[in-house]
Amino acid sequence: MTEYIYSKKAPSVLMVDDTPANLEMLSEMLKGRGYKVRAAISGKAALQAARNDPPDLILLDIHMPEMNGYEVCENLKADPRLKEIPVIFLSALTETIDKVKAFGTGGVDYITKPFQFEEVEARIETHLELRRQKQSLQEAYDKLRELEKLRDSLVQMVIHDLRSPLTGAYAYLKLVKDNTDKTLSRLHFGYVAEAMKALMQMIQMACDVLDTSKMEKGQLQLKTADSDLSCILEDSIAGLKPLLEKREIRFATPESPVTVRLDREIILRVVQNLLSNALKFTGEGGLIRLGIETGGERVRVSVKDNGAGIQPEYRQKLFEKSAQDELRTAHQRYSPGLGLTFCKLAVEAHGGSIGVESEAGKGTSFWFELPVGGPVPRQE
Q1: Hey, how many other C-beta atoms are within 10 angstroms of the C-beta on 257?
Q2: Which long-range contacts (CB under 8 A, 24 or more apart) does 249-257 make?
Q3: Residue 249 pairs with which residues in a beta bridge?
Q4: Which helix (DSSP H) or strand (DSSP E) does residue 49 occupy?
């Protein structure tokens, strides 16, 4: 017998049987062992009693008039307040099919009559303890979720507040770099350029974290308009020129505009993230090819590099926010931070899809597809 049975709050058991003699006998036995026992002589009465004051466990007969035990159990499991209450069937039916049906309706155990009280008590204790542990686990999980929300809120607040001074520092460095007096030496000019690159990467990371969180919560509103996708790709390349460092990005501009309905700023950042990721893993002299493929109602953008490639077990995890720590631990160079997670959420918010193809030693190709007509409006 467990300590749980003799806790200050006695476990409550609801007994359901249309035979008063059965109820009286088992009820006295359970009360003698410290249980709080209630009895119901019909299925309807049992459901009403459970709704008025949910018990910790239910002992349920099958053969009853008007509503049998299977129907009672199905009704209990359909009620959000009662569905977690363990139901033990206590019946004279011994056929396997009866037991299977009992478990199919949501019962956790099945005891056949005539029964030994010790067996009934042991099974009650077992299922009460299981329920207690399940409740404790749920409480711990709920508390953890609240702590995670608090942590995320604090992180977002800090990152949001950091973005302004970072942007200010970048602006001042740009003034120094663009000085008209030409007082900077070539060496110091290079230092300022490197500092600006680092600041721009930090600003991009801050934006990715904040917008990834918004998209996860469905709070980021897309500002869609018809845009020439090839112009967005050209602008993405122009914005990354300071990061090239003896690497090349090639893009063959389509002969005619590729018009897609999208949020220009968001897709621009998607392309820049994919290009930055390719640059990060492509060595000196490396080549990155940026391309557009049109056809039907969708358009595909691809970013192909000739770097070392990505092993199969890491490919899909690259897009998962929850896998970033694992990727850093397992193989640091496959950890892109939240950049690819942002890309996945941003593309999917447009009604598109994203993926990666790679072969070790032969480079990597990231791609995403967008519907030409833009995202489908959400059904309210």
Answers
A1: 13
A2: 249/275, 249/288, 249/289, 249/290, 250/287, 250/288, 250/289, 250/290, 251/289, 251/290, 251/291, 252/291, 254/230, 254/292, 254/294, 257/228, 257/230, 257/231
A3: 288
A4: helix 43-52
In the chain, the amino acid numbered 81 is R
Show the tokens assigned to 331: 């193989």
Q: Mean pLDDT, 10 residues at a time, over the chain (380 residues)?
A: 51 91 88 91 93 94 91 95 94 91 94 89 93 92 86 74 83 80 80 83 78 74 92 90 83 91 92 87 86 91 87 74 53 58 90 88 89 75
Give, rounded to a whole angstrom, the gap between the first and last alpha carbons of the chain: 53
Q: Rounded CA gap, 87 and 84, in Å?
A: 9
Tell me, what amino acid is at 48? Q
Question: Nearest 5 degrees, angle CA 233-CA 236-CA 242?
Answer: 145
> Alpha-carbon distance 228 to 43, whole Å?
67
Q: How far apart are CA 267 and CA 233, in angstroms?
A: 9
Could you give the C-alpha distances from 325 to 1, 313, 329, 337, in angstroms and in order?
Answer: 44, 15, 6, 9
Three-state DSSP state, 225:
strand
Question: Strand 298-305 to strand 364-371: parallel, antiparallel, or no bridges (unpaired)?
Answer: antiparallel
Residue 354: strand pairing partners: 368
User: At which residue do the structure tokens 């036995």 appear?
Assistant: 29
**Stretch (H or E) spanning 287:** strand 287-295
* Cα angle 288, 349, 302; round to 5: 15
Asked whether the CA dihedral 94, 96, 98, 102 is positive or negative, the reply is positive
